[in-house]
Design goal:
With 340 residues, this protein is of the alpha/beta class. Helices cover 45% and strands 15% of the residues.
């Protein structure tokens, strides 16, 4: 483990005004997105769509890293340059999703455990050789009647810690993603409670596995009302509850927090990020690692047509710029309608 290199990579990802594009959708996830615009999910269409995003001119002003899928890290841009090199040339760090997905947890109805630790050491070495400098592993915690259980939280925290330790051994910065889902009918207070418990457990396991905190990043959910909750918290309440929770659970040694959007609309995710960054005296850099909240606009603009690529790239860059401004607490809703 090269601690200086890990810390340097983490700091580079957390550059002021920049964030991460999560372009690591699994085959089922990208197929669902393509279906929404009537496009077949085949290898060339997936390559063309990722090419649109990864080569968008000027996006390097707002994007410091891109999380790739296994297929994508092996693909090439339209000019024949492998995607990792195409990103690196523009000062964007290539990353890689390494988990095997959330599967039903035996004996725990309604709960998931993320798989993929078997063979991870060898895969990380290969990904490093392919150009990846950071990685991502997502653990999923659902809220419903009787869940999450302590067993589920602890099992996912242990997997996240083992993954993080293996990444650092390979000189790859781990993004640790314990996601408390916003799908249920729970209120803000319940999300706060579960997120607090989850983060405390995760950091307890990270320390136990001797993970170098200065050489990792945290990708959590915001503390937010469940999508089916009849009384939705205001954006300001979300920001304040999120910061309160994180101040009590996340060590100051962690260089950065890159929030997931977790099913929020593009505009809502940006607004929440902005309000969180307007709260003073935070010990970490606060940024974004958005998938849908960055991709929805360009995807709907593209529609699988080559002639729409320039307009789709413009939509993507505009979305990235708005989140860059939110990263600095300078976003205003009126900017949504301004030209990119």
């Amino acid at each position: 483990m090269n601690k200086n290199e890990l810390a340097s990579i983490a700091q580079s990802i957390m550059q002021k005004g920049k964030g991460i594009l999560a372009a690591d959708e699994s085959f089922p996830s990208i197929e669902k997105r393509f279906k929404s615009i009537g496009v077949e999910s085949n290898e060339e269409n997936r390559r063309a769509y990722r090419d649109l995003l990864l080569t968008a001119e000027g996006s390097e002003e707002f994007i410091s890293g891109v999380i790739l899928f296994d297929e994508t890290i092996r693909q090439k841009a339209g000019d024949g340059t492998p995607f990792p090199q195409a990103l690196s040339k523009r000062g964007i760090l290539p990353g890689i999703k390494v988990d095997g997905g959330a599967k039903d947890m035996p004996g725990f109805p309604g709960e998931k455990i993320t798989e993929g630790l078997d063979g991870l050491r060898d895969r990380l070495k290969e990904y490093h050789d392919l150009g990846a400098r950071f990685a991502k592993w997502r653990g999923v915690i659902d809220i419903a009647e009787g869940i999450p259980t302590t067993g589920c939280i602890e099992a996912n925290a242990e997997a996240l810690a083992r993954y993080a330790a293996l990444c650092q051994e390979a000189d790859i910065v781990p993004i640790v993603e314990p996601e408390v889902l916003m799908d249920g009918g729970h209120d803000l207070a319940r999300c706060y409670e579960v997120t607090t418990t989850t983060l405390r457990t995760v950091f307890s396991r990270l320390v136990a596995h001797r993970v170098f905190l200065e050489g990792m990043l945290l990708k959590p959910n915001m503390v937010i009302s469940g999508a089916k909750c009849p009384t939705q918290a205001t954006a300001q309440e979300v920001a304040e509850a999120t910061v309160c929770c994180f101040r009590r659970t996340v060590p100051a040694a962690v260089p950065g927090i890159v929030f997931l959007s977790g099913g929020q609309s593009s505009e809502r995710a940006t607004e929440h990020l902005n309000l969180i960054n307007m709260i003073a005296d935070l010990p970490w850099e606060i940024s974004f690692s958005y998938g849908r909240a960055l991709q929805e606009a360009p995807l709907m603009t593209w529609k699988g047509l080559a002639e729409n690529v320039p307009a789709a790239q413009k939509a993507y860059s505009h979305r990235a710029k708005l989140n860059s401004l939110a990263r600095k607490g300078q976003y205003e809703s009126k900017m949504e309608s301004m030209a990119a």
